[in-house]
Design goal:
Elements lengths: L13 H19 L3 H17 L4 H8 L2 E6 L2 E6 H27 L5 H25 L3 H4 L10 H10 L6 H25 L6 H19 L9 H14 L5 H9 L7 H19 L7 H16 L4 H25 L12 H31 L11 H10 L4 H11 L3 H29 L8 H13 L1
Length: 468
C-alpha cells in the first residue's frame, strides 16, 4: 500500500502552489526527454548565429569581450567572457566526460576488451578518415592545422537523433553509438592535449601535478564531500593553464581520478537509514530527547544517502543537467555566432577549410566508421552486438557526422585567423545539420518500425472512447 502524500510545507499558499505545479510540470517532463538537451543546444546555436548577423551584432561582440576580474589581495585574475566560457565552464563539461569515461572503463562498454573492440575500431576509423580527407583538401601549412576539427562527434545531438527515431532503434545500437562517442571524446581529448596545446612549461606542469597529489591525499584521508576537491581541482586547472596545456584537460584528469566504488551501497544505506529511523522513534516519547541528538541522526542519514552511490555516479547525476542545459548551450551561444558577412568562399584558403570540414564530417565520418567496422568484423577481431545489423552501423556512421560542440571547440584552438575560423564553423554547422537530417531520414528507411508493447490495446481503447 502506497504511503499517503506528504502535506504541503507550512505557510504555503495553496493556490500559488497549484499554479507553480502546473507551470513546472511540463518543463520537468521536457527536461526528462533525452533529446531535450540537443533541442536546447540547437536553439542556443541558432540564437547565436542570428544575433551575430542582426543589427545588434555589436552587442554580441561586446558581450563576448566583456572583462571579468577576480581580485584576491594584490592578485588579480582578469579574462573576458569568451575565455571564461571556453576555458572555464567547459572544464566542467570535460569533467563530466571524464566521469563517463571512468564509469565505462570500470563497468560499462569499455570494461572488457571484447565489448570495446568494435566501438574502438569504429571510432578510430571515424577519426582517421575525416582527418585524411581534410588534409587531402588542405595542403598549405597554415590550413593543415585544422585537421582535428572533423574528427569529433557530438554525443548530445547524435543521441538526440536516435531518440527521435523512437522504438526503431534497438537498445544495442544506442549503446554502440554511446560507446563510440565516448571513445571519440577520448581521441579528441588526446588530439587537443598533444596537437593543440602551446609549448609546455615545466613549472606549470609541476603545479598541476601538485594539485593531482592533493586530490590523491584527500582520497587517502577518506574525504568524500565533492566540494572539498574544488581547491585542488583549481590548482590543476591553473597549473595546466600556465603550462600551456589547454586547461579543460584538467577536467578530464579529475574525472578519471574520481572513485568508482560506493562506501555504503544500497544495503548500507538501508541499514543506516533504518537504524536512524528506529532511534528517532525510540526518542519520541522521552523527555530528554533533544535537538542535538536529532541533528546527529539526520547527519548520519545524509551521509548514508550520499554514499549509497559511487562518487562517479553521484557527481555525474548532479552535474549532467547543468552541463546539458546550461554550459553547453552557453558555449553554443558564444561560439556559433559566425558573421555571414565575414564568411566567404572567394578566398581559396577559406574555401579549402570549409570544404575540408564539411566533407570530412559529412562523408568521412560514415565512411570511416562503416569501413573500420566491416574490416575488423571480417577478420574476426570484432563482432556485431546482438540486435545490431549493418544497417544500424550505417546509421551510426551517418549521425557520427554531427560534430558540433567538440568540433567548434577544436576549431577555436586550430585557427587564430577570423576568416578561417568562420569558415571552419560554417562547415561544422552545415555538416552537422545535414548529418542530422540525413541520419533521421535514413533511420526511417533503414530500421523497421517496431510497435511499443501494448500499442494495439491502446489504439483499441482510443477507438472505443471515440465511439462512446
Amino acid at each position: 500500500m502506497d504511503a499517503p502524500p506528504a502535506p504541503p510545507p507550512p505557510e504555503t499558499w495553496p493556490a500559488a502552489r497549484r499554479i507553480a505545479a502546473r507551470v513546472i510540470a511540463p518543463l520537468e517532463r521536457f527536461l526528462r526527454v533525452e533529446a531535450a538537451s540537443g533541442i536546447v543546444l540547437l536553439g542556443a546555436a541558432i540564437v547565436g548565429l542570428c544575433w551575430a548577423n542582426s543589427p545588434w551584432a555589436h552587442a554580441y561582440e561586446a558581450w563576448l569581450h566583456t572583462k571579468v576580474a577576480v581580485a584576491v589581495g594584490g592578485a588579480v585574475f582578469e579574462q573576458d567572457v569568451h575565455f571564461l566560457i571556453n576555458d572555464g565552464l567547459m572544464t566542467i563539461f570535460f569533467f563530466v566526460v571524464g566521469l563517463e569515461i571512468r564509469r565505462e572503463i570500470h563497468e560499462g562498454e569499455l570494461s572488457e576488451a571484447k565489448k570495446a573492440a568494435l566501438p574502438v575500431a569504429a571510432a578510430l576509423g571515424g577519426m582517421l578518415v575525416p582527418a585524411l580527407i581534410y588534409l587531402a583538401l588542405n595542403d598549405q601549412p597554415g590550413l593543415r592545422r585544422g585537421w582535428g576539427v572533423p574528427v569529433a562527434t557530438d554525443i548530445a545531438f547524435a543521441v538526440g537523433v536516435l531518440t527521435l527515431l523512437g522504438k526503431r532503434v534497438p537498445p544495442a545500437l544506442r549503446v554502440l553509438l554511446l560507446a563510440l562517442a565516448i571513445i571519440d571524446d577520448i581521441g579528441a581529448i588526446v588530439v587537443i592535449a598533444v596537437f593543440y596545446s602551446d609549448g609546455i612549461a615545466v613549472p606549470g606542469l609541476l603545479v598541476a601535478f601538485a594539485g593531482v597529489l592533493g586530490v590523491g591525499l584527500f582520497q587517502r584521508l577518506g574525504v568524500r564531500q565533492a566540494a572539498a576537491y574544488v581547491a585542488p581541482g583549481a590548482v590543476v586547472w591553473a597549473g595546466l593553464l600556465s603550462a600551456g596545456v589547454h586547461p579543460t584537460i584538467g577536467g578530464v584528469i579529475l574525472g578519471l581520478l574520481t572513485p568508482v566504488r560506493a562506501w555504503f551501497g544500497s544495503q548500507g544505506f538501508v541499514g543506516a537509514a533504518r537504524a536512524a529511523v528506529d532511534e528517532v522513534e525510540a526518542q519520541q516519547g522521552r523527555s530528554d530527547a533533544d535537538t542535538h541528538a536529532l541533528l546527529k541522526l539526520l547527519r548520519d542519514i545524509r551521509t548514508a544517502n550520499r554514499e549509497a552511490l559511487a562518487p562517479v555516479v553521484r557527481i555525474q547525476a548532479v552535474l549532467h543537467p547543468w552541463v546539458a542545459f546550461g554550459i553547453m548551450p552557453l558555449f553554443a551561444l558564444a561560439n556559433a555566432g559566425v558573421s555571414l558577412g565575414g564568411f566567404s568562399t572567394d578566398d581559396p584558403g577559406s574555401r579549402a577549410v570549409f570544404t575540408g570540414v564539411l566533407v570530412g564530417l559529412l562523408v568521412g565520418k560514415p565512411i570511416g566508421i562503416v569501413l573500420a567496422s566491416v574490416a575488423t568484423v571480417k577478420v574476426g577481431v570484432c563482432a556485431l552486438p546482438r540486435g545490431v545489423s549493418w544497417r544500424g552501423v550505417a546509421l551510426v556512421g551517418l549521425v557520427g557526422g554531427i560534430g558540433f560542440t567538440m568540433a567548434i571547440f577544436i576549431a577555436g584552438l586550430a585557427f587564430d585567423d577570423a576568416a578561417l575560423l568562420a569558415s571552419a564553423k560554417m562547415g561544422i554547422m552545415l555538416a552537422s545539420a545535414l548529418a542530422a537530417v540525413v541520419g533521421f531520414a535514413a533511420g526511417q528507411l533503414l530500421l523497421p518500425a517496431r510497435p511499443e508493447p501494448g500499442a494495439a490495446a491502446t489504439v483499441q481503447d482510443a477507438e472505443r472512447a471515440v465511439d462512446r
